[in-house]
Specification:
By secondary structure, the protein is of the alpha/beta class. It has 2 domains: 39 residues, no CATH class; 213 residues, Glycoside hydrolase/deacetylase (TIM Barrel, Alpha-Beta Barrel), CATH 3.20.20. It is built from 10 helices and 9 strands. Strands 1, 2, 3, 4, 5, 6, 7, 8 and 9 form a 9-stranded parallel beta sheet that branches.
């Protein structure tokens, strides 16, 4: 009996020893694996932390919408000012409501520009503050000075008409120099493909861009929508685009609707594109 008990006792001890060896080997293998249980407790080591993946915010193409020909009508200007969005206001100089529109627009945080009348290819009336190719450099500079005084808070200028004036290098160089002296940018309305305004502004180191689309050359709502879609396509291809429009009933109604449902673009002041 004693011999049988002794054998059982030895067998039990052997089983315990084998279990201990098996446990030790298993833990040793875990320790060798990266991130094993024993690895966590090694001196100076910390468990790996998986950071959540961060996606950059989606960027949309930028579009600047410049409303030209403001100044003669307070009623139309008030309708434009009600459009939600940072539209840029380009104001004709020396008009009845030029200063008032500029002050109201500035109060609302809108970019203010001066819309300088320039000689057209056809014999069109320019109104007050117009520039003609027959003017001397001094006359051009003096007229620009009077124009600028009539429109407060301006950041830049673009041309009203000007298909004859903007082709004249001597006359346009005088305009660009006057704008540069006052640290104003120049937006070439590009009323003619032969305009030298953008080229000369670049040469003088002036911040400058060219318009891409006229929204309302035609006052037809369907035509405006066609131009709007063209504008968006241009912005998506290049990252930004500039449209010129006018304070007309159909244009105002279209912009109110288009901007309220817009999900494809970001409307920005034109000065933001000038700094890009």
């Amino acid at each position: 009996m004693k011999s049988k008990k002794k054998k059982r006792h030895i067998a039990f001890i052997l089983l315990v020893i084998m279990a201990a060896v098996f446990f030790y080997v298993e833990e040793f293998e875990k320790e060798k694996r990266p991130g094993g249980i024993l690895d966590i407790f090694k001196f100076g080591k910390k468990p790996a932390i998986t950071k959540p993946e961060i996606h950059p915010p989606k960027t949309f193409p930028k579009i600047a919408i410049v409303i030209d020909d403001l100044g003669p009508s307070r009623k139309l200007a008030e309708q434009v000012l009600k459009i939600k969005g940072p539209l840029t206001l380009s104001i004709l100089p020396q008009q009845d409501y030029s200063a008032w529109i500029a002050e109201e627009g500035h109060r609302l945080g809108r970019d203010i520009m001066i819309h300088i009348p320039m000689e057209a290819a056809r014999p069109l009336k320019l109104g007050k503050g117009g520039l003609y190719t027959w003017m001397t450099d001094r006359e051009i500079s003096q007229t620009i000075e009077e124009d600028i005084r009539s429109v407060p808070h301006i950041k830049g200028a673009n041309n009203h008409m000007g298909s004859s004036f903007t082709r004249d290098e001597r006359a346009m160089n005088t305009v660009i120099s006057a704008l540069k002296e006052r640290r104003l940018f120049f937006l070439d309305s590009l009323t003619t493909s032969e305009s030298v305004g953008f080229k000369l502004a670049k040469a003088q180191g002036l911040k400058t861009l060219q318009r891409d689309v006229f929204l309302d050359d035609s006052d037809d709502p369907e035509a405006i929508e066609v131009q709007w879609n063209r504008l968006i396509k241009e912005a998506k291809q290049r990252g930004h685009a500039i449209a010129l429009g006018h304070p007309r009933k159909n244009t105002i109604e279209f912009l109110q609707k288009a901007l309220s449902s817009n999900k494809d673009i970001t409307i920005v002041p034109v000065s933001e594109l000038m700094s890009d």
